[in-house]
């Protein structure tokens, strides 16, 4: 494998690792907290919100936004590390 | 000034603005027509994507649907925002690097096959047409209520406006009008929400107001009050819902994946300069969308409490003016079953006397809360901006599918640049006329099908694109097989369980795995993946040069601009 290809493979591996971590969080806040564990979380109240309901209608959306911006930062750094930035 | 004068004024100003932008940014080349020249800034693209994405359904209907569905409405909130995470992480950067004009372009080239391209065009057309018809209808409804014109006249006015800037400006014109439309619609949505939140809770931020206590000195939380009112009238608790966990799960996933697979959203990421910009603009788009999407459930809570407080067990003769206005449109009906002149609004169908259409909750909300006339007019302008921006984006996908994917790539490869541009304009015109026709004569199935467009997108595009990027050895046989089986299965399930085209619609208890037609896209998507991978196993690998393309799109640098080829 050429040097160039090795670099590309290593970059791709790190990228996929980030995707797994970020998508695990994506799944946990929406399908986990907002749907599967909603009833259990609803026993906890924050202000007027039951927690499970809050995740389903508010919290998951905030986390989604943060996730994409974290991804943007991670990838910009990764691009720099491998010299793919432009 | 009266509401009507304000409405004419605001709608007139915004329409003039859109037309002005269209003239200023008209397209001169096919590249400008399809991808706005490829040099749109991430912020402008984020705003345009947000407006493109938020349709009449998001602006007018969603808060109302949630108000009546309570927790069950969460599927739309999570589904229509969570899809952007998939889009940003799994699709947008790679498709931008690939650098073509349309989604079928990607499918056709990646799977080295015109059959794959045609299947993708077919899926894109089905998804876009079902969706656009709903938008034109939305335009008609807003016009008829706020400007007292006939719904059909409203649809025709909407058609002319969209025709003007989509046909003239192409993607370039659409992008910059969508930027303006985002500003109009978000302002129009937020102003009444902030007013009402402050009125009811003393907190001007609706997202926080929703979790606060009522302003009436009782110290009761809004959510508790609403749960109390709901159970009192015999409904399920607002925070509980009635759908099964598996169905909520399936619908949410289908909407997310469908969002990520919608061609008119994906194509927006071809318009930015670099891969880096594509990622960033997906983040900005979701941020801008989230402003509305986190406000909507608050509006639902405010509106529902206000509605119940105003009408429940009150005398019909004492109802405020908005009640009569909406009765005239038929979106609100009162049937005094026990002839006592008092409105009974209860869960029990035999005793319930009030039927409220979902759409009223946003459109009438400012009137119910007694807000000033200009705020009410603003909502009309916002609803129109939302419907028009989405309609324009969809029309562009339809026109590009015909002029680029079919004419240029399949039937007449040597067509000149100028010829293709005219073909694109012609296709857009025909598409507007068809969409308008469906707006004026809505087939009964349009409303039902719009919700299912996501299932169709999930069942067809998403697996083919994801596998095309993340699985180098994915071949054309697998991808084509997966798409055909996926979309056919989805269409079959819709026809059987939603549209009743195959005999009487079976009872809910016969749903496969207990999953509703809205959530079935999830199942069809999984089947698509499985079929694709199994066929792939027994058919030849893709050629070396295709595998090289895949390696190349995984590296962000050197995206250049979207090129014709």
Task: Note down, in words, how this protein is organized.
- The complex is a heterodimer of chains A (86) and B (565).
- Chain A is mainly α and 86 residues long.
- Chain A has helices at 3-36, 38-41, 51-81, and strands at 45-46, 49-50.
- In chain A, α1 runs antiparallel to α3 (51-81).
- Chain A is elongated.
- With 565 residues, chain B is mainly alpha-helical.
- Chain B has a single domain, classed as Sodium/glucose cotransporter.
- Helices cover 71% and strands 1% of the residues of chain B.
- Chain B is built from 22 helices and two strands.
- In chain B, strands 1-2 form a two-stranded antiparallel ribbon.
- The longest helix of chain B is centred in the N-terminal third of the chain and has 51 residues, at 151-201.
- Chain B is globular, with a radius of gyration of 24 Å.
- The model of chain B has no long low-confidence stretch (mean pLDDT 87).
- Chains A and B meet through α1, β2 and α3 of A and α5, α10, α11 and α13 of B.
């Amino acid at each position: 494998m050429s040097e160039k290809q090795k670099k590309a493979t290593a970059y791709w591996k790190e990228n996929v690792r980030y995707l797994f971590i970020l998508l695990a969080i994506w799944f946990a806040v929406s399908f986990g907290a907002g749907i599967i564990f909603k009833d259990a979380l609803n026993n906890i109240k924050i202000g007027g919100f039951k927690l499970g309901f809050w995740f389903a209608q508010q919290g998951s959306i905030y986390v989604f936004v943060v996730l994409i911006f974290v991804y943007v930062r991670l990838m910009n750094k990764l691009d720099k590390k491998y010299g793919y930035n432009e | 000034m009266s509401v009507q004068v304000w409405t004419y004024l605001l709608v007139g100003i915004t329409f003039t603005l859109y037309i002005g932008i269209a003239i200023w940014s008209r397209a001169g080349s096919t590249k400008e027509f399809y991808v706005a020249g490829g040099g749109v800034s991430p912020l402008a693209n984020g705003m345009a994507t947000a407006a493109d994405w938020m349709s009449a359904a998001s602006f007018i209907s969603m808060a109302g649907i949630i108000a009546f569905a309570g927790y069950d409405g969460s599927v739309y909130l999570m589904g229509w925002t969570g899809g952007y995470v998939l889009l940003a992480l799994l699709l947008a950067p790679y498709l931008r690097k690939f650098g073509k004009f349309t989604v079928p372009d990607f499918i056709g080239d990646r799977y080295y096959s015109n059959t794959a391209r045609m299947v993708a065009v077919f899926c894109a057309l089905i998804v876009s047409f079902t969706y656009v018809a709903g938008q034109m209808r939305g335009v008609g409804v807003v016009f008829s209520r706020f400007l007292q014109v006939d719904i059909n006249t409203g649809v025709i006015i909407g058609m002319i406006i969209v025709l003007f800037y989509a046909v003239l400006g192409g993607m370039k014109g659409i992008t910059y009008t969508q930027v303006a439309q985002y500003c109009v619609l978000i302002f129009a949505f937020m102003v009444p929400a902030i007013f009402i939140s402050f009125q009811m809770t003393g907190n001007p931020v609706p997202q926080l107001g929703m979790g606060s206590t009522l302003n009436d000195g009782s110290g009761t939380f809004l959510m508790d009050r609403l749960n109390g009112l709901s159970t009192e009238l015999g409904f399920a608790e607002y925070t509980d819902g009635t759908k099964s966990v598996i169905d909520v799960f399936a619908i949410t996933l289908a909407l997310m994946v469908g969002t990520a697979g919608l061609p008119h959203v994906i194509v927006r990421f071809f318009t930015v300069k670099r891969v880096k910009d594509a990622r960033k603009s997906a983040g900005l788009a979701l941020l801008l969308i989230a402003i509305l999407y986190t406000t909507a459930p608050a509006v639902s809570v405010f509106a529902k409490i206000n509605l119940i407080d105003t009408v429940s067990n009150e005398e019909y003769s004492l109802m405020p003016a908005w009640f009569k206005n909406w009765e005239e449109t038929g979106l609100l009906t009162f049937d005094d079953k026990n002839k006592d002149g008092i409105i009974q609004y209860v869960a029990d169908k035999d005793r319930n006397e009030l039927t409220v259409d979902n759409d009223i909750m946003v459109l009438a909300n400012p009137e119910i809360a007694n807000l000033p006339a200009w705020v009410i007019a603003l909502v009309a302008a916002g609803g129109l901006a939302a419907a028009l921006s989405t309609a324009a984006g969809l029309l562009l996908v339809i026109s590009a599918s015909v002029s680029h994917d079919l004419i240029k790539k399949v039937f007449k490869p040597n067509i000149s640049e100028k010829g293709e541009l005219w073909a694109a304009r012609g296709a857009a015109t025909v598409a507007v006329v068809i969409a308008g026709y469906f707006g004026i004569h809505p087939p009964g199935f349009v409303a039902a099908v719009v919700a299912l467009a996501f299932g169709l997108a999930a069942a067809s595009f998403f697996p083919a694109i994801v596998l095309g990027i993340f699985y180098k050895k994915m071949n054309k046989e697998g991808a084509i097989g997966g798409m055909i089986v996926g979309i056919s299965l989805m269409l079959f399930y819709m026809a059987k369980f939603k549209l009743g085209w195959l005999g009487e619609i079976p009872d809910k208890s016969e749903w496969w795995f207990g999953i509703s037609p809205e959530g079935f896209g999830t199942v069809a998507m999984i089947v698509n993946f499985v079929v694709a991978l199994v066929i792939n196993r027994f058919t030849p690998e893709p050629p070396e040069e295709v595998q090289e393309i895949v390696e190349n799109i995984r590296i962000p640098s050197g995206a250049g601009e979207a090129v014709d080829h």
